[in-house]
Task: structure prediction
Amino acid sequence: MGYSVSKVGGEVLNVARESNVANSLSGRVSGLNVAGTSGGPGSSARINIRGVTSFSGSSSPLIVINGVPMDNTNRGSSGEWGGADQGDGIGNINPDDIETMTVLKGSTASALYGSRAANGVIQITTKSGVKGKTTIEYNTNLQFDRAVDNTDWQYEYGQGTQGKRPVDVASAALSGRNSWGERLDGTPTIQSDGQLHPYSAVKNNIENFYRTAASWTNTLAISGGGDRGTYRLSLSNLDGQSILRNSGLDRKTVNFNTSYELTKKLSFNLMANYIDQKDKNRPYLSDAVMNANNITFLATNVDQASLKPGYDATNNGLERAWSDDIYATNPWFVVNQFKNDNTRRRLISAISARYQFFDFLSLQARIGYDFSSDRRFTVFPYGTLFSSNGEGSLEALYQGTRLELNTDALLSFSKNINDDFSIDASVGGNFRRNNSESTRLYGGQFIVPYLYTPTNTRTRNSEYLYSALETPSVYYTADFSYKYLTLSTTGRYDTFSSLPRGNRSLFTPSVSASFVFSDLLNTPALNYGKIRASYAETSGEPAQPYQTAFYYNVNNPINGTPRGSFDAKLPNANLEPFSLNEFEVGTEMKFLDNRLGLDVTYFDRKTEGEIVSASLSSSTGFTSRSVNLGSTSNRGIELMVSGTPIRSAFNWNTSFNFTKLRNEVLEIDQSENPSPLQTGTYRPLNGNISIVKGLPIAQVMAYDYKRDANGNVIVGANGVPLRGDLKPMGSGLPNLYGGWNNDFSFKNFNLSFLIDFKYNNKVLSATEHYSYVRGLNQATLVGRETGVVAAGVKEDGSVNETVVPAYIYYPQLANNVSAVSVLDGSFIKFRQLTLGYSLPQGILTKTPFQAISLSLVGRNLFTLMKHTDNIDPENTISSLVTYAGVEGGSLPFARTYGFTLNVKFK
Result:
């Protein structure tokens, strides 16, 4: 191969596992950056290979199962206004069914898969049977998640406002999230439940509010085969609880694949993967509405148990107030009353036939079918404090379907011309269709309490959405090998239905070469040595269709009068596919009887004509327009060093991977000094994530201190530092990451651990902001009794001497200067540990068992280094690149421990 490829075995994915198998790849592959959403079991993952290339679309790689692309669309994400993560496509896959996951990093490797593979490919190969051997295998995995409290609040002052503790139920209910009271002294003090509680520190709210959550997976598989074919059937069930009470998922999976030789020349393959997944109460993240995770900001002397059950059973179940904001839902009300249930039924299948005309010529035809049906039921319960008359609302009764259909044919030629020269060539075509359709019913104010049906609402509305894409393609590939030299070339011609007729087609070629120089040197110390180089072009279409022409909506009527509208984005009939060019060069070497390995790659990739949303003056009647103006650059080095320092009765295998990336936005709209293109923000709304020319994508923008010509902080007349310019503070994505993996074995014992790291990313932290606003941050201890005198000068240049009460100073500081909420997200983590034992074969000789192994497992066990005092640096609200770096209002990071038992029957 003339490009970089990495393979991960299924055994490292299913021993200590994640509910979304993509997260198990973190730290294992150079060039690959994986970050999960902090939303509980089944949450989506952000997967980036060699950086981010897209301004507004997805930068995720294409997921391919047994040669057939699958839909990995993010089904819904939270933003600054709240909402829940609805999962992605790869999160539905059962790790027990995976044989290998292969990461194709470069554009050359993904050229044949078309535009969706512009960001790389992850190939999943599922397990299959073996001819002449029947195997029954049972695998059970029981794990427990426990919330990790990363907060380091001050516990010297308690609940209250303006330096005073609450004196009655009303003032206690208004100050439940404020620790601007008096010094803690243990005196019985009224709280929002109407009871007297000691005015003393309560430090275990995170531990007591969140539960220890069990996740139990059971998989039974039977596989085998005869002279003419093989088969494998597996049945699996995952019962995964969330650390948030009354939340979790249940996933049932049936996987079947078979291959059969009907004749000596004709063979068939069938793969079918059926998933039935039920998600109970997917947590809301980010904003405080229906977000139980705001328990984090409980005043330092308030026990979370005092908020139970969150509602007043004697007053029609009305939510009990606990803070000064009715939109900050009582966490126990969320746990006990909120409904946000999802159901997904999905079939991923493929059938192919292969006819071998001659030993050097074959024809394959294949159909891949990926169909999912989603149902969501979201209710703001009867009694919700902020709802009209406290009667709640039906937010969504949603039914949606999505179809990904791929049909292809491939004619392949493979022949050794002589002992030194061989040719492998293919020509084929593909037709892709992607359809999605959904309906949503919603309405407000339930008439009959707790009857959550659309017909029981005082107001009712409906929504209908439809989308369709088609991409016909033709392609070729050819490999020419002469002794130790291989030259490869590919070409693909795509036509995108989402673009105008005159601009919708693009040809994308690639060429690569590899030279196995060790065959020439014949040096004993060098077992293998190869130099590889490649160049490729790939393309991409808009993230969403229907951007090239006007489309009108018929909206809900007002007093019986129908309403029409059109999008505020001006369509562009001249859009073209954007292009991505990549050059890669690398070497792979193995030394000392293959005990030392080195794999190094340098890559340089550039996008041009990226489709961006350019702002327009509102006087035009529109707010923006899609244009081909964006351009990005990604350059970097990937390194993998592997070795076997000890090889004997005791074995030690180790590997270290490292990626250094430089990402830069070259163009936004081709103006000399374009304004930053905002993509997302966080709930305090005084900072955002933007695209800035000359800087990496996902730039954290925040307001700095206002300074004079000498760099002194300028303090306002009120004694609080003034807000300066909105400045880029760094990218929310790391540019240095990797991992160190170790495997030890001695007789029947094995031990392995993984340490991974990420550096040079920033976090726009809502938790940090609110910790200043609510008097929780230890920095707010300064000036509690005496007031705060800000270091700086007044606007007239004189030294500031104004004394400001702490409860006024710190909230205003956090609101004025959001730079105090920008944190360094770098970390090193002890990610995974497994300790296993396999029963000796001698013990199993006279039993029905072929093999039995037991492993103790742990994930996310320790954080070895971080720079964030009150949060885990990996806590995120969304897997979308547009929100990369945004933190706040998500579930706490969880530590996982448990065991895996694997039994194979004879």
